[in-house]
Design goal:
It contains 12 helices and 17 strands. The chain is α/β, with parallel strands linked by helices. The chain has a domain at about 180-350 and about 375-400: 2-Layer Sandwich (Dihydrodipicolinate Reductase, domain 2). A hairpin with a 5-residue loop joins strand 11 and strand 12. Helix 1 (about 1-20) packs across helix 2 (about 25-35), helix 3 (about 45-55) runs parallel beside helix 11 (about 360-370) and helix 8 runs antiparallel to helix 12. The chain is globular. It binds nicotinamide-adenine-dinucleotide. Nicotinamide-adenine-dinucleotide binds near residues 67 and 71.
């Protein structure tokens, strides 16, 4: 697994460099803090190691990568280092970005759009890290061409479009998955087992929070199809639905807090997407949770494994669970139970680079036949919940949610 560790280290190096370029993204602050504090990268993420160990020796999956912006600089090194991944093609509508990615990672074929890319050499998995409004049209074309798809979140902007993608994948005999990867963390598994095992009694409530000052590089984050809920709150919605079950109804409020923002690609832009969001979910049987997320949050001390800032809290009748650090990169789970009210840190397993390992994880699942813990149905449900929040804001009503997914994830 040396390759995996190397990939993690290389990717983190990029993020440290990138951190000084783009400034305030919380994830990067976290990674920078982790390395500055001297944390050793000693362990391969447990789930990644487990999935990759199942890949038959010598097997390779052909991958095409589309969208060579900010996050691709973390995805590509991770995939390039995986011995079971062959990076076949790379694509961006800004051609110099694709050229530069191809050069850096020795990817032989470069394309300026998805049609040309799909008309070129065949690949088995499309990894889509384009801007959010491009996800659905790009994912749809790839599925139509018979490719599996790993998409950054969300897989589409409209629930009907996400249904269409799932139906299309089924028809074509391929699969689609959407980030984030929260449900494959050891800390998620630990909390799921605690809840399902009745260790904190009857679970009644949950809370998630994730915010920072907002991306500084691309305008689309602040326009229709962007926003803090799709970009950041999505992690908490995935974690809380994964732990407490599918949502039945939603109440939400969103706000635009700045008339304009300055971004690197377009200068001053008008903000129309949510910058401050409060989402309340009813998981059925009186179990509630809520997510607060925003591009208007104080974040000089991004929660890391060195700082015990809680971002997810689960409350039951006999105990509570509290995630240290962001849920896409948790450090530990603090636990209090009846008779042991002092919070005790549990599940400190290190896996410093989970959030960008999703494409690599599903690639190993495709090669090994192992079932992915991340599912298209969960991704679709999370999208419906987020859209219900926007609908609740627009109408002032409580919104029913129809979709569901197989739960509990660890039965
Ligand atoms: N930046 C991060 O740290 C980060 C972290 C986790 C997840 N994400 C997610 O990754 C996705 C991309 O984010 P980003 O920050 O890299 O955005 P970005 O704006 O930096 O990059 C997007 C890239 O996609 C390209 N693109 C857009 N539409 C395209 C199309 N139809 N065909 C080909 N290329 C196209 C753009 O030219 C751009 O280079 C988003 O869903 C975001 O939420 C980003």
């Amino acid at each position: 697994m040396r390759e995996t560790v190397t990939a993690i280290v290389k990717s983190q190096k990029f993020l440290m460099d990138e951190s000084s370029r783009v400034g305030r993204l919380g994830r990067r602050g976290f990674l920078k803090g982790t390395l500055a504090a001297g944390s050793a990268l000693t362990a391969v993420p447990a789930w990644l190691a487990a999935a990759e160990s199942q890949v038959p020796a010598g097997r390779k999956l052909r991958v095409g990568h589309i969208g060579c912006g900010s996050v691709s600089h973390a995805y590509l090194p991770s995939m390039a280092e995986a011995e079971f991944i062959e990076l076949v093609s790379v694509c961006d509508i800004i051609p110099e970005r694709a050229q530069s990615a191809a050069q850096e990672h020795k990817i032989p074929h470069v394309f300026p759009n998805i049609d040309a890319m799909l008309g070129g050499p065949k690949f088995d998995l499309l990894v889509n890290t384009t801007s959010m409004p491009s996800h659905y049209p790009v994912n749809k074309k790839a599925l139509e061409a018979g490719c599996n798809v790993w998409s950054e979140k969300p897989m589409a902007l409209e629930v009907k479009d996400a249904h269409e993608l799932l139906d299309l994948a089924k028809k074509k005999g391929v699969q689609i998955w959407a980030a984030p990867t929260c449900v494959v963390s050891p800390q998620f598994r630990y909390m799921s087992d605690m809840i399902q095992g009745g260790k904190i009694g009857r679970v009644t409530a949950g809370h998630g929070t994730y915010g920072h000052g907002g991306p500084t590089w691309s305008a689309w984050f602040y326009e229709k199809g962007g926003g803090s809920l799709y970009d950041l709150g999505v992690y908490n919605v995935t974690t809380l639905t994964g732990l407490l079950g599918p949502v039945k109804e939603v109440v939400g409020m969103t706000a635009v807090m700045n008339k304009t923002r300055k971004v690197e690609d377009k200068g001053e832009v008008t903000v129309t997407a949510d910058e401050n969001t409060m989402l309340v979910m009813h998981h059925g049987n009186g179990v509630f949770s809520h997510v607060q997320t925003g591009f208007v949050y104080f974040e000089p001390e991004a929660p890391s494994r060195e700082r015990k800032v809680y971002t997810i809290d689960i409350t039951g009748t006999d105990g509570s669970l509290h995630v240290q650090g962001w849920d896409w990169s948790p450090a530990a789970v603090d636990v209090a139970t009846r008779g042991h009210a002092i919070l005790q840190p549990q599940c400190r397993e290190k896996w410093p680079y989970e959030w960008v390992g999703g494409a690599r994880y599903v690639a190993s699942c495709l090669l090994s036949g192992q079932k992915s813990l991340i599912t298209a149905e969960h991704g679709l449900h999370v999208l419906e919940v987020m859209n219900a929040c926007h609908e609740s804001q627009a109408t002032g009503r409580r919104i029913a949610v129809e979709s569901a997914f197989k739960w509990p994830i660890f039965g």
